[in-house]
Design brief:
It contains 5 helices and 4 strands. By secondary structure, the protein is mostly helical. Helix 1 packs across helix 2 and helix 4 packs across helix 5. The longest helix is centred in the middle third of the chain and has 20 residues.
Amino acid sequence: MEPSNAGLTNALPVDPQELADAFSLIARVFSGEDAFDPTRYQMNFTNERGEVEHKPFVDTPLNRIMLALQEWCREETREKYLSLCWRLFALNELIHRGALREWVHQDDQQGYFSIPGAVLRVAAEMPLRDGKEFDPQRFLESVRKLVY
């Protein structure tokens, strides 16, 4: 389930603390510390005969994470929820590519990372390239300006 940016041209800025809290939630759900059951949610779709069918979500790490985030953001606007998701996906991509290895380190607990405030601040405010990713060079330059 990749977020779509239909209706938005770019992710809105978010509060860096909300980004940190979202990462913390993701880590807890991923590690199993917070039990979250996506099978209690369902999708409704229309089959070939025009009948509405109900199908529960499968219990996968991505479904647990995305539905936990959606529930966590249930009182937020759709734009804010999607902006948070896009920023999380974009930052996660930089982390897993190793672009932030100078600042982001994996903790002893599986699924937990130490992410400095400067990285979170840039991720919360920097525009996304093509509405879906951070420009790695620009991201690193912005973090360095805040750190040094």
